[in-house]
Specification:
This protein is 38% helix and 16% strand. It has seven helices and five strands. A five-stranded antiparallel beta sheet has the order 1-5-2-4-3, with helices on both faces. The longest helix is centred in the middle third of the chain and has 22 residues.
């Protein structure tokens, strides 16, 4: 579901997609893949679990197990998007990507501009699907891991050949670029506490 309304839940395993504004390849342009990893680190420090991910040039998918949080999921993800947006804009400024910054500024709607927003770095909403079954989780992991190997990108010949993905861990058992928790290990963890 595209999220434009509050998600009341504060825990659970979710498949999340966050997309750069107008599908611009901002992660690629800024070499900003590490910005997503920094957000993952923040989530881990707050007792959440990264279960799977792929960071593409212009969007990323992740499976996150949210452990009971004092904040709603919309707030957690919104704060993550805000942090990542500031970092991406900072790098675009450092690279003197003035044309892109002008576009990002022009895409801010009047309401957000009045609140002080300067750049529209991400699409306003994000996709979130709660994962209830192992079958659904496996389907989403397969989708995530195949993403770099198909479509217009063709970033790798095989899923475990792409560095910004959890595919290598699930295919070989060896942690890749970012350490994750196997979703099967979550069965022994109570996410409501």
């Amino acid at each position: 579901m595209t999220v434009r309304k509050a998600i009341a839940e504060r825990e659970g395993l979710y498949f999340i997609t966050i997309t750069c504004a107008r599908w611009l390849p901002l992660f690629q342009l800024t070499e900003g893949y590490d910005i997503v990893y920094t957000w993952f680190d923040y989530l881990k420090r707050n007792s959440h679990f990264i279960v799977g991910y792929v960071i593409m040039p212009n969007h990323f998918h992740c499976l996150i197990a949210f452990k009971n949080s004092s904040r709603k999921l919309n707030s957690v993800i919104g704060n993550g998007k805000r942090f990542m947006a500031y970092e991406l804009v900072k790098r675009l400024k450092e690279k003197k990507e003035d044309s892109i910054l002008t576009h990002l500024a022009s895409w801010v709607n009047d309401t957000d501009r009045k609140r002080g927003k300067i750049h529209e770095v991400f699409e306003p909403s994000f996709d979130a699907k709660e994962c209830y079954t192992d079958k659904f989780i496996e389907q989403k992991l397969n989708y995530i891991h195949e993403n770099p190997c198909r479509g217009k990108w063709l970033l790798a010949e095989t899923p475990n050949g792409y560095p910004h993905s959890s595919a290598a861990f699930y295919l070989t058992g060896i942690q890749g670029g970012y350490p994750i928790k196997n979703f099967m290990e979550l069965k022994d963890i109570d996410l409501t506490k």
